[in-house]
Amino acid sequence: MRLLRGIMGIWLGLVALSVFGQADYQALRKNMVDTQLKARDISNLATLKAMGKVPRHLFVPEKMRIYAYSDGPLSIGEGQTISQPYIVAYMTQALKLRPGSRVLEIGTGSGYQAAVLAEIVDSVYTIEIVEKLGLKAKKLLKSLDYDNITVRIGDGYHGWKEKAPFDAIIVTAGAEQIPEPLIDQLKDGGRMIIPVGPHRGVRQLVLVQKKGEKVKKKNLMAVRFVPFTRKKE
Fold it and tell me: Per residue in 71-90, pLDDT tens?
């Protein structure tokens, strides 16, 4: 079924190109929301609205734009990927964000997930360890007037202590274990979502909920993510 949806997304892109001479990205985006998100279990209105608004095609290499709204991840260079639209929406929905939320993202990548978050909350702080990607994302996000997103180049393991505590933390790279500094920087009542598991293996998408001194963890689904990268000492 996933393969079929992916093929349909590519086919729709080719149709748009042949009919209009260029992709009708708005129509492709609506189709993505209808067939990949609403048709599954994405029901949060703020998440659906954000996914329907952010121009995903601008966050992928130009030669890949025809595939931007297909049902799968895409390479963005430097050994990194932009996650499948469904996974972006699923992780966003799981955080139960509110307009006033302060969110930390570990793994800026293309900047797409940060843009989706910024459509919902007041402030997004995002960290990218690959300087080339981080600077590119920062430039793109600025050009799209996302003035509520702050990008930092660095090792995300230690979070962003100066801006803590956070209502929500989202980690878009697979870690072998949950970094303790991120748990510490989560606000009481806050939620974190992070892929956890063996290096280069299938990981579990874990929802972390903090309540006082207690930390509750729940496995949500099996996923594959690029590895959580650390700065070499």
Answer: 999 999 988 999 999 999 99
| Closest to 110 measured CA to CA, from 159, 86, 143, 74 | 74
Known catalytic residue at 75: no
CB 193, CB 95: distance < 8 Å: yes
Stated pTM of the model: 0.88
Q: Give residue 130's identity as a one-letter amino acid code.
A: V
Range in 4-13, 17-26, 149-158 with the lowest mean pLDDT: 4-13
Amino acid identity, residue 74? L
Q: Report the C-alpha gap between 83 and 66 in whole angstroms.
A: 16
Q: Are 218 and 207 in contact (CB under 8 A)?
A: yes
173 vs 82, 95, 102, CA distance in Å? Answer: 11, 16, 20
In sequence order, what are the beta bridge partners of 222?
Answer: 204
Tens of pLDDT, residues 115-165:
999 999 999 999 999 999 999 999 999 999 999 999 999 999 999 999 999
Q: With 0-12 CB in 10 A as exposed, 13-18 as middle and 19+ as buried, what is 143?
A: exposed
Catalytic hit among 83, 110, 123, 143: 83
Amino acid code (one letter) for 216: K
Q: Which residue has the tokens 């009481």?
A: 188
Give the CA count within 13 Å in the CB-facing half-sphere of 179: 23
C-alpha distances out from residue 232 to 2, 129, 154, 155, Å = 37, 11, 11, 9
Q: What is the token pair recorded at 145?
A: 């007037």
Rg (CA), the chain: 17
